[in-house]
Amino acid sequence: MLGRRTYRIGKAAEMLGLNTSVLRYWESEFPQIRPIRTIKGQRLYTDDHLAFLERLRDLLHKEGLTIEGARKRLEQELRGESESAPCEGGLEPSLKREVRDELLELRRLLSDKE
Predict the structure, then answer these.
(1) Domain residues for 94?
(2) What is the C-alpha separation between 63 and 96, in angstroms, rounded?
(3) Number of domains within the chain
(4) Is residue 87 within 8 Å of 93, Cβ to Cβ?
(5) What is the CATH number of the domain that holds 13?
(6) What is the largest CA-CA distance in the chain?
(7) I want to staple 70 with a disulfide (CB 3.0 to 4.6 A). Which of 22, 24, 59, 108 is the partner?
């Protein structure tokens, strides 16, 4: 642990502007958040944890994503994808998929009537 700054849960929560209960809940939802545990069981967060938690906080609180939406966005970012980056034709990938799925459903409905 030499050279790594660590912060107790109270300090980490204060730095992020969150309640400690929120950090504990997010731990249960995101495997990326596994704080170091002392012998007494205290949680210690590293700077890497704080960076991840800041990104998660922004996705949930500023962008209004759900936990599942934030999970998907973080996975995309890890893979180097960007859900919000425009693709061919100027449509976002999620919108393009949604339009494609609706067109396929319309095609299926029309072929069922024949």
Answers:
(1) 84-114
(2) 20
(3) 2
(4) yes
(5) 1.10.1660.10
(6) 72
(7) 59
